[in-house]
Each structure stands twice: as C-alpha cells, then as structure tokens.
Amino acid sequence: LVLSQLLKHTVMVAIDYCLARWTSDAISGKTELELKNCSHCEDFNHSPYSKVFSILCCLGIVLCLVTSIAVEWTGLKVTKKLHSCLLNKIILAPMRFFETTPLGSILNRFSADCNTIDQHIPATLECLSRSTLLCVSALAVISYVTPMFLIALVPLAIMCYFIQKYFRVASRDLQQLDDSTQLPLLSHFSETVEGLTTIRAFRYEAKFHQKLLEYTDSNNVASLFLTAANRWLEEYIGACVVLIAAVTSITSCLYNKLSSGLVGLGLTYALMVSNYLNWMVRNLADMEIQLGAVKRINGLLKTEAENYEGLL
What region holds the ABC transmembrane type-1 domain (predicted)? Predict the structure, then answer.
C-alpha cells in the first residue's frame, strides 16, 4: 500500500514538473526567436515533451488503479483475519464469558465494528496516506523551486506539530459531541412520527415541537464548532505557507532568474498545501476514532478458551 502510494505521487509530481518545464522552455524558445528576429529559424519542438508527458500520464493512471486495488486488498485481508480470529475465540469461550458479557456487545463487535474495519478504515487509511504524501510532495517541490523556503520550513513544521496535536484532541471531542447530539434528535423525531396520534389527542404538539427545536439547536452548535475548527486549521496554516512560498519565489525570480514555469509550479503547490494539511489532520483524527473498533475486537481476542479436551 505504501509503495504504491509513493510511486503514484512520485509520478504525479513528475507530471507537474514536466508540464512546468515544457511551458518554461516553450516561452524561452519563443522569446529567443523574437529577439533574433529570424523568420527562417525553426519553431520550438514540442514532440519530446508531449511524448514524455503522455507516458507519465498513462503510468499515473495505471498506478492509480494499482493503489485502489492495494487499498481494498489490504482492508479485506485484515478484516478476514480479525473476523476469523474473533469467531474462533467466541466459539471456544467459556460459559462464564457469556454470563458476564451482554449479547448486544458481542453482536456489536461482529456487526458495527467489523463493518468499520471493512469499509471505513481502508478508505480513511488511503485518504490519510494520500493527503500526507501530497503535503510532503508539495513542500518538497516548493523547497526545490525556492531553496530559501527550507529556512522557514523548520519553525513552520514545529508550529504545525503543536497545532495539529491540539487540534486532533479538539476535533475528536467535537466529532463525538456532534454524534452524541445527533442521536437524541433522530430518536425524538422517530418517536414523534410514531406517536402522532397520541400527541394530537393530548394536544402536546407545541411541547414536542419545542423539544425538537432544542435538539436541533444543540446539534447545530456542535456541527458549527466542528466546521469552524476545520476551517481555522486550513486558513491559518495555509496562509503562512502561501506567504512564505510567495515571498521566496518572487525573490528568487527577481535575483536568481528563476523560470516563470517553476515559480508557477511552486505557488500552485503552496496554495494546495493548506487543503492537504487540513485533510491530513482530519483523517488522522478520524483514524484514531475508527481504530477504537480494532481496540474493542482486540479486547475480545484476549479471551481465554474453554479447557476442553474433546472427551468422547
């Protein structure tokens, strides 16, 4: 999974770099022809660039398919192994285990938790690895285009570390708060729909309507804080990265004669760093929440088997 992701994002960066180099060379060739004022000179040859660009694009499409297959295969393999081990442990568990453990808890491990491992964790893992590699590749491209960016990268990385450490705790708590306030809202709505006849008979429409508004307000407050936290992370860190990248790129372009194509490539990646970093931290927080299902299943896997010798 990691190898396929690394190869895919390496090819993606190579495609962008090839396009930037193609643009810079084409502009430089056209400028030289205009300066020479030569009508018989040959035009810029786009054939080598187009061939390399086409090969890289085809390779990128193939690697995207390979990455998707690797993600699904990894998730399926892990899920089958965990489910098989859990089933063997539960079947061989002693009677005191079933007397002390609620049946709903056991069923929840086989249903909700296995579903989380089967469907959600592989997708979140793929998004986390993709956003992480995109963020790293973007910083690498900016550092390659403007080496002065490396001077500001160290304090920026330290600041991002402490910010994401604080944000992950807040995001996880806000997500749990959003889920906990959504459940009473849905339960109250379903109970209201099922008991409409009784509510109308006792004329409690206003009371149930007010209760529904209170549950809705509580859930909206939690959702609003969660959205605001995500936007704050994206805007704050992204603005710092774009500012530093823009200043260093313009300075390098003025004093070091950096090509316009590479400057545009660096600024494009700088504008996307905020989005990549935001998704990386959010996926990391989601992964921590979803790995709770693995932790709960792992707790049942420690159940000691019945001491049964198979007597006839």
Answer: 1-288
Residue 312 resides in a domain: no
| Residue 309 falls inside a structural domain | no
Quote the DSSP letter at residue 125: H
Tokens of 147: 């080496």
CATH of the domain at 32: 1.20.1560.10
Would you list the DSSP string of 154-204? HHHHHHHHHHHHHHHHHHHHHHHHHHHHHHHHHHHHHHHHHTHHHHHHHT-
- Could you tell me if residue 308 is left (phi over 0), alpha (psi between -120 and 50 degrees) or otherwise beta? beta
**Residue 69 domain boundaries:** 1-302
Helix (H) or strand (E) holding 303: none
State the Cα–Cα distance between residues 266 and 263, nearest whole angstrom.
5
Nearest to 23 by CA among 268, 243, 247, 241: 268
Cβ atoms within 10 Å, residue 31:
10
| Token pair 């299902």 in the structure block, residue | 293
- Taking the chain (312 residues) in runs of 10, the rounded mean pLDDT of each run is 88 88 78 64 75 91 90 87 90 84 81 85 88 85 80 78 77 79 82 87 89 91 81 69 77 70 78 77 80 87 74 51
| 21 CB burial (10 A radius; 0-12, 13-18, 19+) | middle
**Residue 311: inside a domain:** no
**Rounded Cα gap, residues 148 and 150, in angstroms:** 5
CB neighbour list of residue 287: distance below 8 Å, 6 or more residues apart: 121, 124, 125, 128
pTM: 0.68
CA distance 52 to 15: 9
